[in-house]
Every structure is written in structure tokens, then in C-alpha cells.
Amino acid sequence: MASTSKMPSTSEDDLEEEFEHFDDFTLASSWERFISEIEAVCRKWLADGTKNLLKKDAICLNISEGLYKADLKYEMKSYCMEYYFGTVNDVVPGKGNDWSCVLHDLQLFFGVNEFLVIAPQSASGVVLDGPEASKLLSAVAIALSNCSSLWPAFVPVHDPSRKAYIGIQNMGTLFTRRFEADRIGSQVPVKLMHLEGLYELFVSKFAFSTEDLSTHLFEVSFKMKLTYCTLPYDEDDDVQEPEAGSTESGGSPKSNHHNKSQWDDDCPWSEWYSSEDPVRGFELIAVWSEKAFESSLDMAELENASPLEADDWLISPCLSETLTEDSDGKRIGFASQLRLLVDALEMSMEAKFIEDFVSEHSGPETVKSSAVIPPPTVLDRVLKDLFHEVEGLQLGFSDGDHKDSRTIKGAPLESLFGQFCLHALWFGDCNIRAIAIFWIEFVREVRWCWEESQPVPRMPSNCVIDLSTCLINQKLHMLSICINKKRQQEQESPKGGEQSFFPAHVKEETQVKRCLSPHDGKTQTSSGERESLSRPDGLKDSVGHISNSGHSDTVKLGDAKPSSCIRRGSAGVVGSMMLLESQQNMHAPFTQEPPVMTEDMHEERLQAVEALGDSFSFSAQLEKDILSSDMSAFKAANPDAVFEDFIRWHSPRDWENNDNMDSGGSHDNAIKGLTVEWPPRGKLSERMSEFGNSWRKIWNEAPPLPASEQKPLLDPNREGEKVLHYLETLRPCQLLEQMVCTAFRAAADTLNRTTFGGLKQLTTKIGQLNLTMAATLRCLQTSNLSIDTEDIQDLKRLCEIFEHVEKLITLAASLYTKFMNAPRLLESIFNDCYNFYAPRMGTVSTASEVKKDFEKKQKVGRREREIVASMFTTPTANQSWRKVLSLGNLLNGHEPTLREIIFTKHGHLSENYYGGHAPRGYQHELETYRMYISGTSNDLSVALAVASCD
User: Fold this and answer.
1) Cβ distance 868 to 798 under 8 Å?
2) Per-residue pLDDT tens for 417-472?
3) Which of 112, 310, 357, 789 would suit a FRET pair with 843, their CA atoms being 20 to 30 Å apart?
4) pLDDT at 554 over 60
5) How far apart are CA 264 and CA 266, in angstroms?
6) Residue 808: DSSP 8-state
7) Geometric angle at alpha carbon 250, from 245 and 254, rounded to 5°
8) Helix (H), strand (E) at residue 805
9) Of the candidates 235, 202, 208, which has an alpha carbon nearest to the alpha carbon of residue 220?
């Protein structure tokens, strides 16, 4: 039909239309033309089939339903006819899945699978006129009959809010099914609130029965689905909580204490922020499968039954909007604060000194004066919490930390700098000005610890510095060691102020081994040396005395010796080893601890070695000071020792013994009183005996001094001041780079300590996050200050990945607190939630797969029902929204939020009565009546399907 807006056609066009078109006078009216158009569309759909329609342009409504549309016009009105068809064969109403969540409303109402819906193209989309609806439905029925199609057809009527329909279906026999659905939106009769009244409503529809309904017992099939919802966990909250992550004037959340208990109080992130529970509640569905009832009394008895007696339980979590929708920065957590820290890193590239960001009127122009700076009271509170010494604190790598977190060059979670970075995330709004003020005050507190010789909190005062951590953490560790050494010096110094020394220690490979004397079997240590061993800080008193007992470790050696040959600094004999020239027992000396070094100190020494050239070997030059100290201590403890004796004690690999003659055999023979060949056969290794060996040169130059009289290998005053100079002159970019690495590592380790039942998918995701962080943060672990825009963008993308994992961990923790006694249900529900959230993490390329609503349900086992039922706590007076309960089947005082019932009655086909056989595909039993009822005490929807032979 040509549009009225077009220009009139020419005579030639009219001539062409006359020959190309003709009037079919068999279609005498527009009504018949309308039926013909419907028939043509239906024949086309039947010919194509559902598979071809899906390949064309059919709309896939969900995983089991397709939709195909066609536009029609009758007289002056336009109509739209829609064809709904199932795409999964096993989703068929009446085949055990009447309550499937993927069913269309009409499929649920009337138990149909494929159907047509024809409606006017108007704002309401319904037919308000009764005769028009009947005429429209008749046209579709005639068209379907001409096509030999058994599709039911429906027309929406009345007001759209009523969801009212009328429909018809040709069943291929003398039977025709008619459909009608309507809804009562208010003032539901009390009788229809109970199962007994609903049963009587259904029975009253048996119009063809001539018997008295009140006395006759009809066998009616019954199915029921009850939906229960837990009360929102925060519905009865009288105390209004501050917004998550917000604190007094931008202070750290860790220092705030909430009076009201939160769901995540036991979670590791609760000391930094309070997270919204991602599980707002649960929806429980109790299903009674098909049963036969014969009276309303049976229905009344069923209404008093407990939901625990239902055949099936299905549960589904009600997820928060933080999971179902994009947060758009509204969610407060570690990820949101890490984004702000990355912004501060980007801004730190514009200044050379951290002080440039303190003043509002100085520094780069991009620093806004509106940046939040917490008041001094908040700063004092945070510093007090940060520098508070925690007893029994386990520093270093904890069992709760992920194994891959070590690959991130940051500071451990419980260390001082690790806690500083976490506090900085919440200090103010984590802008560069707040970080600058916080860092300056932090360094002042560290200097106070140094000047007052107070231990640095959260840092070990011994141990080897972990070079895999960031440089700031290494420096703080070095400072803690220096303060400890400094305090020992002050305790050991006499009142006269003489020079004090570091306490020495015994090398691990030369621990004291007390042996028995070959003469009397007594221990060969004098009282002075015993005091020295038990109290290493008393090395100055460990001087041997002359005795006539002949014990080499407690007497003057051999004949009369000068006073310079007195043994000093001995820690005891070394097994059965004896000196080569004097045949005295060899003594292990007390030695100084090797000096600890940070990463930059190692680099400086390596550069110095390269500058010296080949005058010393690489290893010898690097350890020259330590080696010289050990040699001096060995000479003092063994005055008659030679270079070969030192090698036998310090580096046994460089002394080549004869296989048949070793020091152990000599000792055994000495005990038996036998003659021992002396000296033992052996020699220095090739590298130690070569000409110009650096070790022998150091041996010749080393004076015999015990460790207590040597110059300390580590000067605590000098090294401590160097650490403070580094902290006070650190460039902003270098500070922020280490802060970003440490903050990511500390935040991830904090979340990793969450208890969530060892869910496999989440464990894998956490491992992937740590590997991604290590790879992305590698650009910050170099010292060339080459951070560019692309690196910043990578860090921002890392924040998004971190947020996804943080949400999943929060969800897992919430589910674990509720299902810790039902691990199977916990894992199944989390896996469903994970698959629902996965497309939002970028794992699915097509946006059509991103679902807005979570609809997956899990079946609850019989043994798990009590655990699930315990979640439905008895509502209080404030929580109950109805004072008088109207429906039955209460679950711990909760009435169903939705009750759905299906009544059906079946009749038998009589071949003699109908004068023919049942059509192909039909059983001898036919569903003659079906009624679907849905609603609550204030809302009731009823859909009736009746098969009749009229």
C-alpha cells in the first residue's frame, strides 16, 4: 500500500500497476484480508522453524526462549504479532520444571510452550475494548486453523497493570482450550488467602459437572511453590553508620572505633574500612511436587505444614548493587584508595623535594588548594597508633601472606613502612599534600627514636636485612640495628666514657665443642672462659691464666713465653683440632658480627671493587674487613697459630687432608695413648698456596686482637645518620614509587588473610592477582625514574583488577560467615556468583552476556535445611511489616513473600462419545482444567485454562 505522503503516480505507473497487480475478489472484506495476512506470516514461521528463525533476526530473550515479531495492519489500526518459542527442549511446562525461572509469564500461567501474542501498537499495548479483543482473537484462531497449527494465541486486555489475557488454542480434536488471566491488586477476600478457599475456587470452575460440588470429592492435582526472603540485615538499624571509609576529618579508619557491630568485624580489612555486605539477604523457595487431593480439609492440613516438609528447597542470594552494577567509584575499599595513590604518584613527578607539596602556595600548579589535609589531632592519633610498639609482633613473611607477594618489592605488611603506607591510603583523601605532611612527620618521629636511642617499632633490631624488600624498609631495618648497637655501647661504656665495642659472636661453623681431656676426662675450659661463653658481653675478661695442669687452653704455652703470647678472646677448643707447630688445642675465637648492608650499600661496594681493578680478587676485596677481623681474633685466641691453622678452621675446603690420616684419627689415638704421627699429612689448596695470595697477605698484616678490642665493622653512629639523611632527602617520586608497591602488597596480603573456606576459583584469582601486580609494579622497582604515561595507565588498570578481586573476596567472606557449616552449598553458591560476575571482569568479550539480575538457584540438601532455616531468625516487632499474619506455612515466623499454586484436573477421552480416535500425539487422558494462582494477602493473580468440546 503506497504511502499518502508520496507524489501522485503518472499514467504509465498506473498502467504498470494494472498489469502487475490484480484484485483477489475471493477476499471480500478487510476482515478476511487481515486473516489472510496473519495466515501468511504464520505459514512462513512454520516453514522456517525455530532454528532458522534464530539464525535470522529472532530475539533471544534468555537461554531458553526466543521471540520473533511481525507487524500487521487492520483497517486504521496497527497490530504487532509476536511468536514466542522455546530454544531448549527440556524446558517444557508440565514436565517437572513448572517453576523454572526462565519461563515466560504466559508459559507459567497456562502451561504452554510455543504461543502467539497479538496486541495493538499503542502506548498501553493492550486491547481495552472487549468486542475488539474477541474479534482479534477470532482472526488469529481462524488463521492458525487454516495453517493446521496448534499454537495457542493470546490477546492482552484491560489495564496493563492487571496483566490480564484472553486466549484460545485449537487442540486438533473436538476440544478447544480457552484461557483467561486477571489480577486483584488490593482487598483480596480472606477466603482466597488460604489454600482451602483457593481449592474451592478451582472446583467451582467445573461447570460441566452436574453433581453437587459441596458433596462430591474431586481428585485434584496440586503443586505449590513458596518464596521466603530473609529480612535485610540492616533493616532494624537504629544507629546510623558513617559512610564506608569516611572518618573524622579524613583520618585513618583504623583509629576509629564503632559502637555498633558490623558483619565484617572479624574480617582483616575491618581495621581500615567497613564494607557493605554484598549479600543483602537470601531468597528461599520451598516446592511441593504434584500431589492428589480430594477435599478442602486436606488443603487446610497442608497449610499448617512446616516448610521443612517440602519436597525441594532452592536458595538464591540477593546480591548488592556493588556486584550487579558498576560501582563508578562509589564503593570505598583498598582499590579506591590505591587509585588515589597512583594519582599522587603521577603528580609527584613534578617536584624534587617533598616539602614542595606542603604549602598551598608553593609547588606545582596541579596541586589543588582544596586537597583535604587532616587536622593536627588526627595526625597525632595516627602517628601514635603507628609508633605504638606491638608486643609479640611477627615480622617478615607471615603464613597468611600469599607466596607470590614476595616478588613485589615492597615492605612486609606488619612492618613500620607497610603500616605507614596503609595509613597513608586513608589519611585525608590520599592526595599528594596529605602524603607529604604525613611523611615529614613520620621521619621526625623516626629521628626522635634515633636521638633518644629508642627502638624503632615494628622493625627487628637484628637479623639480616631482606634485600627483596623496598629500600625504605631496608633503611628502617638498618636504623633499628644501629639503635640497638648504640644502646649496647651505652650500656657497656664505663662512666669515664672510654670507647665501647660491639659484642662479638661465635661463627656458626665454629660453635664451641667441649671435649674431654686425654688425661683426666674433664672439661678443658677455665672459669674465666666459662664466664665468657655464658656472657658474650664479657669478652674483656676471657684471658687465660698460667697453670701446671698442662692444659693448653688454660696455661701459658710451652716454656716461659712473653706476656704478648697470652691467649685472649677464646670461645673454647675446636673439637680435637690442634695447631700445626705448637701441637696445642686449637681454640675458636669470638668474632664480630658481619656488617649488615642495604641494597644501595652493596651497590656502592661493588662499584668500589670495580674501581680497584685486579689488585685483589673480587670476593676477597668484598670481604676484606670481615676476613681481617676474623684473622685478628684467631691470632689472639691462638698465639702460636700459622696461616695454615686459620685455613683449617675458617675454610676447611681449602685444606686437603690425607684420607688415612685426619685430625679425628689423631684425637682418637691420643685418647688411647698411642703415638700419633705429627704433623698430620695435608696441604693448602691450590688457590690458597699460589704466589701472592690475598688471604695470606691479609694474614700477615692482621694484628692479634680479640674481637672486643677491634674496631667495629659497623659504625652505628655513621650508618644511622646516613639512614636519616636518606629519609629526609628522598625525592617525592622515589617515595611514591615505593609507597605504591608496598601499598598494593600490603593491601593484597591483608585481603589474603580473609577466611573464605578455601574456594578454588577465588584462590586461583588471588594467585593471578599477585602475579599481575608483580609484573605491573616492576616498572617502579628501578631507580632510573622512567615512569611514563603508559605506566600510569597500567597502574590504573591494575586498580580495576584489584577492585574485582576485592569484591569477590568480600563476597566469599560474607557467604562463608553464613554457610561455614555447609561447605558444599558455600562452594556452589559462590561459583554461581563468580560466573555471574565474571563478564564484568573483562573475561567475556560480548556485552550481551553481562546479566543485570542474578537468578541462579541452588538446591538445598536435606541435611543443609536446618542451617538455611537458621538464617531466617524470628522477626522482631520492629522488623515485622504485618502485625497479623495472613498466610500459612510459616518458617520461623516468616510468612511467604510469594505463594504460587497450580491446580489441575484431568479427564479421559471417550472414543465412543466423540466418534473417533484420539488425535496423534495425545494421550487418552487430557488436562481439562488448569488454574495458576500467584500472590500474597494483598495481591492475587489467577490464570485459568479450560478445555471444552464446544
Assistant:
1) no
2) 999 999 999 998 899 999 999 999 999 999 999 999 999 999 998 888 999 999 99
3) 789
4) no
5) 5
6) H
7) 55
8) helix 789-819
9) 202
